[in-house]
TrEMBL record:
This is Syntaxin-binding protein 5-like. GO terms for biological process: exocytosis; Golgi to plasma membrane transport. Coiled coil: none annotated. One of its GO terms (cellular component) is plasma membrane. GO terms for molecular function: GTPase activator activity; myosin II binding; syntaxin binding. InterPro entries: WD40/YVTN_repeat-like_dom_sf, WD40_repeat_CS, WD40_repeat_dom_sf.
Length: 79
């Protein structure tokens, strides 16, 4: 009953498809990084958003808010 879309202007939209006319419930704009990839694991409440800088941001699907946790590409490489 829901759909997540990533737009060319680096905005994520959460759509409600359970009504006669689909409507955007929440939007989230990325200002400093461009979105290149999104992954929502099956039955997960966490959406993983990859950026062109190589970082991974995590979005809570239920509240559609960015978590404070970010996987930085340079920190992951050091491991």
């Amino acid at each position: 009953g829901a759909l997540v879309t990533a737009c060319a202007d680096d905005t994520l939209h959460l759509w409600n498809l359970r009504q006669r006319r689909p409507a955007i419930l929440h939007s989230l704009k990325f200002n400093r990084e461009r979105i290149t990839f999104c992954h929502l694991p099956f039955q997960s409440k966490w959406l993983y958003v990859g950026t062109e800088r190589g970082n991974t941001h995590i979005v809570n699907i239920e509240s559609f808010v960015l978590s404070g946790y970010v996987i930085m590409w340079n920190k992951a490489i050091e491991l």
